[in-house]
DNA sequence: AAGGTCATGAGGCACGTACCTCAGACGAAG
DNA sequence: CTTCGTCTGAGGTACGTGCCTCATGACCTT
């Protein structure tokens, strides 16, 4: 059964009005009585009409502008996210989408808020942010939304803000998975150090929550040490881990739910206990890959950056159709990597 | 740096010819001297011109027709693939793509070849097949390609045919991953039964190859029993597994690299040895999910059917642009599922 | 030289939407 | 009554491409 999509012409005919009126309703232009607008809305709903985004962008001879705000610094995962955006510049252009990548200072809420406030709806239809949970960022998101810019969160969510969508993994589930693996690795129980980047990052806080809950429920023999905050910095993370290992000679495992994995791996190797500790980290990047290969890290939980960017772009496109309803996206999978299934 | 995409007008101007000539070259219509065509090709390359697929489909007022041939029967994974196609009917229509789903008799090469031969290029731009490696299918693929239908393989590849692309996981790597997990589960070694659907299915043959190679290299203490072929049928698979378990009271593990997992799980439970056997299966479906939850199955390796269909659709779109070069697609991830990270 | 074929240019209409102008129709206020 | 403002319809042009017709000129054949 091949059915043609409804067009504005069909809507006009069905509503008994002219094309111009349908156009005014669709694009929120003034000069339509409420009763008439009602008729048009009804026809749109009845026919299941949805604007043809491609024809629309073509007619406007304008690309969809999507701006990605991604933290800079030495966090390899953020680097991978940024690369994933760059990789799609060309193919996005083929779909009339213009992607822009801006690196913002990591863990600097004021800088991100300012950048958001500087966005102009004329040069930005949609903004994607990797944000920590701070009042000034929430305010900036709400302000951008009021200016007509759709904001979506990437990696770490910002509930309670006007963000239209969250693109990322279920971080509570990720924390639970880490706990479940760690519990199996340590059937006798023991101490496990937990290192976060910052608990202001909701993804980190959620992973910790999931990890702690699953341990309590299923592996009460495991004692959690920490969390400590390494601010996603390799040097700081390394010295924190070194200190924890020195202080606890009976440490049995480490769960780094944030970044700074290069520091983690050096500290593990410097301790001389690398092979005897069960270690779980996040994001498949150069340091964690090296850690897996050398045996310093046992498991890496990964959120596919390419998949996240792909879904972000798809969601931005759907949002551009201007529906009020939330946009459906494919869920992002949590990848589990051992030394043997490295991509 | 915002750069406008090149259009046919730009190409015409750059090549010093008229729009009509560019059009003739682009659409392979006759009436252009080789020397002139050369000039146009050169301008296209120089400007990096690529046809705007959306404008093109709109101008033709014609949707892109993509036909999926997916085996029917009781194979839950194939059911999931089919559902994944159906789920995208609507969103594909929004991109001027008309998807069609046809279920063909599983493991019946003649039926699939006949279906392929019945395709008309007027009502099918691209065909996606899940095929076993048989000469008559290869011949049908080549014939379809000559008729102007792009054929791609899904799940299981068909090298040596005129298929334009393969969408699926790296099955050798999947087999290696299974071996690596099994090896760790059985540090003392022991007998592991291997069950396939059909070794005419290249994905199954490749998994076996990877499994066997990784065992030989890394876990020589493990002895492989089989493979036996259960033809992806639950009853047949169940009785095969039951027989193997009865014959080998010292069986330590089972690797089912094909389907028929409902039969696998019943046989395991009927044997009374479910908990003491390490079991690895493929595809996260109802039976394997139940197996994970009950503990009868330890690990499931999964190829995300939604992701495969998404990539297949994206690849079909790219192919429609008519480039001779192979089309780049995102790789499909091999998911690893334990009881604790079930989606 | 006349007729033929072939290569090419010029231009138009169509697809679905955006955005513009202009002309009426209508009701309310003066 | 006129005048104004608001609502609505009619129709045009544009976006990038496909596909069509028609005209022109060059070259070949007889």
If you had to describe this structure to a student in words, what would you say it looks like?
The structure is a homodimer of 343-residue chains. The relative contact order of chain A is 0.11. In chain A, helix 1 (8-15) crosses helix 2 (19-26). Chain A has a 6-stranded mixed sheet, with helices on both faces. A 5-stranded parallel sheet of chain A has the order 2-1-3-4-5, with helices on both faces. Chain A has 343 residues and is an alpha/beta fold. Chain A has 14 helices and 11 strands. Chain A has 3 domains: 8-50, 434 Repressor (Amino-terminal Domain), CATH 1.10.260.40; 57-167 and 305-330, Rossmann fold (3-Layer(aba) Sandwich); 171-302, Rossmann fold (3-Layer(aba) Sandwich). Chain A binds chain B through residues 2, 5, 50, 52-55, 58, 63, 93-96, 98, 173, 176-177, 180-181, 214, 304, 306-307, 310, 330-331, 333-336, 338-341, 343, and chain B through 2, 5, 50, 52-55, 58, 63, 93-96, 98, 173, 176-177, 180-181, 214, 304, 306-307, 310, 330-331, 333-336, 338-341, 343. The first copy, chain A, binds a DNA duplex (30 and 30 nucleotides) through residues 5, 7-9, 17-21, 23-24, 26-27, 29-33, 36, 51-52, 54-62.
């Amino acid at each position: 059964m091949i059915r043609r999509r409804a067009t504005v012409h069909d809507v006009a005919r069905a509503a008994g009005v002219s094309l111009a009126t349908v156009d005014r309703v669709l694009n929120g232009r003034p000069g339509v009585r409420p009763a008439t607008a009602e008729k048009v809305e009804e026809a749109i709903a009845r026919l299941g009409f949805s604007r043809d985004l491609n024809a629309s962008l073509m007619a406007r001879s304008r690309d969809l502008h999507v701006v990605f705000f991604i933290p800079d610094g030495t966090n390899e995962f953020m680097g991978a996210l940024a690369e994933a955006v760059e990789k799609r510049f060309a193919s996005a252009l083929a779909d009339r989408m213009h992607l822009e990548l801006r690196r913002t200072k990591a863990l600097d809420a004021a800088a991100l808020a300012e950048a958001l406030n500087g966005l102009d709806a004329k040069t930005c239809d949609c903004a994607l942010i990797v944000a920590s949970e701070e009042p000034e960022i929430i305010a900036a998101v709400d302000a951008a939304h009021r200016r007509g810019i759709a904001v979506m969160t990437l990696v770490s969510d910002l509930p309670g803000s006007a963000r239209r969508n969250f693109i990322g993994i279920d971080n509570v589930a990720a924390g639970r998975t880490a706990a479940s693996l760690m519990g199996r690795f340590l059937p006798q129980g023991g101490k496990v150090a937990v290192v976060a980047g910052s608990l202001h990052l909701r993804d980190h806080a959620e992973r910790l929550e999931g990890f702690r809950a699953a341990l309590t429920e299923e592996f009460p023999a495991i004692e959690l040490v920490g969390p400590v905050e390494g601010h996603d910095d390799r040097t700081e993370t390394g010295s924190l881990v070194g200190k924890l290992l020195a202080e606890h000679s009976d440490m049995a495992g480490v769960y780094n739910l944030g970044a700074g994995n290069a520091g983690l791996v050096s500290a593990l190797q410097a301790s001389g206990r690398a092979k005897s500790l069960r270690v779980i980290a996040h994001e498949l990047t150069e340091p964690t890959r090296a850690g897996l290969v050398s045996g310093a890290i046992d498991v890496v939980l990964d959120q596919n950056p390419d998949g996240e960017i792909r879904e972000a772009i798809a969601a931005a496109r759907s949002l551009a159709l201007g529906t009020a309803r939330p946009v459906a996206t494919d869920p992002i999978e949590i990848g589990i990597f051992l030394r043997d299934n490295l991509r």
